[in-house]
Amino acid sequence: MSDSPSSMDRWLRGSTIAEAATQSFAGWELLGRRIHGIISWNMNDSCNYRCSYCTQRNMADRRGVLAGERFQQALDTFARLPGSWEIKLSGGEPFRQPELVEITRQLVEQGHCISIQTNFSASEDRVREFLESTRGALNLFSASLHLEYDSPQAFLAKYQWIRPYESLGVRFHVTSVAVPHRLLQLRDEIAPFFKSHGIMFKVQPEKIDGYVRDYTADEQQILLQLGGHNHTGRIENNFQGKRCRSGANYLVVKSNGKAFRCYPASRLGGKFAERGSLKDGFQLLDGPAICPYTYCNCTVPIQRGMIEGYIPPLGERGSLELEE
């Protein structure tokens, strides 16, 4: 494929939808659907927690929550996507979105699959309502364990809300931020606890200003013992110069509605970085484009085999991972 803007860009409207779909790779099967791509949608920047290591902790309490016209614009834009996509909902905290259930219900009706990343603080009724709205179309329920606010035992108790839906294909994972003073606890207590209950546990390196913080050699060793960043086997990934399908079969949509080819693109810009918006439509690339960034923290493309010449080390290409 040519990397020129005139040949790479396709607006997902009207007659261009089928053309864009035929120029991308075959995708994969998920919950009985042929999935064309994945969108990581940071629905809002609102969160009921203020974790000491969170870069969003000082944001306004309800910043970016969809309302009114923006709510319908978002659904209309997702409806114009070519084929079925997996929409990964995160924030902030997605359960802070008042219309979450209505959003997921309509996305499922459009033929999309859903995954969600949450701090698992929502009420049982609220979680069950969400689970029902996504019945048969929910891939991953990922619970972020913040030890400043919650405990593994509490997560295990709430996991019982999810278990009845596992027969429908739902997977349950727990993640936690690898803050240096928590590393030994994560390795020696938290990870064994969830493993003993058959629950996947992963860690995410702590970031400062968008980049992995400086860890000592001993701390890095513990991180790798825990599987690295979301079980990629590495703490940091660099695919600069490689061709990646981000922008073609993966998008990041921020709380302001703007769409980007990946998370580094949303911070650093560059060629083909911005790919439309919820208001104006998504602008997909025709195929893979060269990665210009020295740090990749988008573990979805990494573990879904979207980077040419790179094979995920742990063989999890069929699972949605967490990039932030």
Kindly list the characteristics that best describe this protein.
alpha/beta, 324 residues, 16 strands, 10 helices, disordered N terminus, two-stranded antiparallel sheet, single chain, TIM Barrel, globular, disordered C terminus
The N- and C-terminal alpha carbons lie at a distance of 30 Å
Principal-axes shape call: globular
Q: How large is the radius of gyration?
A: 19 Å
CATH level 1 class label: Alpha Beta
> Mean of residue pLDDT?
86
How many DSSP-defined strands?
A: 16
Write a compact overview of the structure shown:
By secondary structure, this protein is of the alpha/beta class. It has helices at 5-8, 16-22, 68-79, 100-109, 124-133, 152-162, 183-196, 217-225, 263-268, 299-303; strands spanning 10-11, 28-30, 33-42, 84-90, 113-118, 138-144, 171-178, 200-205, 207-208, 211-212, 243-244, 250-253, 258-260, 274-277, 281-284, 289-290. The protein is globular, with a radius of gyration of 19 Å.
